[in-house]
Fold this protein.
Amino acid sequence: MRRLVRTAVLPVGLAAALLAASGCSDKATGGSGGTAADGVKLGPGVTDKGVKVGIVSDLTGVYAPLGKSLTQAQQLYFEEVNKAGGVCGRQVEVVVRDHGYDVQRAMAAYSELRSGVVGITQFIGSPMVTALKQRISSDKLFTIPMAWSTSLLGNQYVQVTGTTYDVDAINALDFLSTDKGLKKGDKVGHVYFEGDYGESALAGAKHAAGKLGLTLVEQKIKATDNDMTAQAAALRNAGVKAILMSAGPRQSASLAGVARSRGLTVPIVASNSGFAPQLLQTPAAPALLKEFYLTSAGAPIGADIPAVQKLAAAYAAKYPGQPRDNAVVNGYTSAGLFTAALKKACAGKDLSRDGVIKAHRSTGAYDDGFGTPMDFSSADRPGTRKTYILRTDAKALGGLVIHKPAAESAMAKEYQVPTGG
């Protein structure tokens, strides 16, 4: 019986110290070149028998619940791959690092992984990946960020999956105007994290607000700000008719709770990382079940899609009692698209880093049956501009249902998405 995927999780710094103490070379950590017996060109992270992939997640910080789901879903995916014979006849090993949503820790984690993996299948955080873009390019390391800022576009080695935050904000305001009665002259609140995530979403909101004749009432916050009392009060006093929320689950819960308690019952539309189903088991649940929506390029874990339903069952069997949320689908499908590039590179007999990214960028259309067809041929564009509008539902698996199918608004279609270069 083939062995299952091995996962190594070490504190940042320990692995580097062990490497230095043992005098290991890049080749010893996972292969650095040459040609295998099967004629496949090798590269860092690839040997005759194995392929190492990296994960740099947030398992202890602001996005810890999502990070755990993403990581476990990817571990599940690679276990399934190994049971089926691996990739290019090689077993996959996953190496995990936790940065706790801290840029310096993320940079240290990257330094530990860079020479020993073929790529990174999950890297949480726009600020983290943005800080490392130049190094990623120099290392030619295929990286999939679990972040959707436009600052991450324009890098050949970084693949933003799905939409970007600005495109989602545009489609959200289109939804609010066509379905929720938002009209010219109305005020819309926007609570957003400082930094790449919030600024990207804000750019889209400003674009759509200008087209629709709306006035944005901005409330910038820090990732460490968990009490949204002041922001809710400011938006209520401004008389907003809707709210965009580009922050984390804790901030969404606080905002919804305070706003509803003060009679502000307007629709709230959060970015894709602004909700976690665990919130529906807290005192914030009643507020989050009133006119609370989520934008997402991916279908929710409870969607009536065969591939999603199969994943939901497999995840429950592997991790009984663990929450099944949108991050499960996101993590699993991201591991899938990364593996698709590896398999295509294998077919071309080139598993070097150049071979892997060339294989990935030659994919003009990608559809894995999970409800989000994408195009990876250009690093300057998001994989899609279609956004699902999801709605909270206490009875639904993962706490979300599809309120409106994925669609690209006219504003999103003509919008010139900026790139970070």
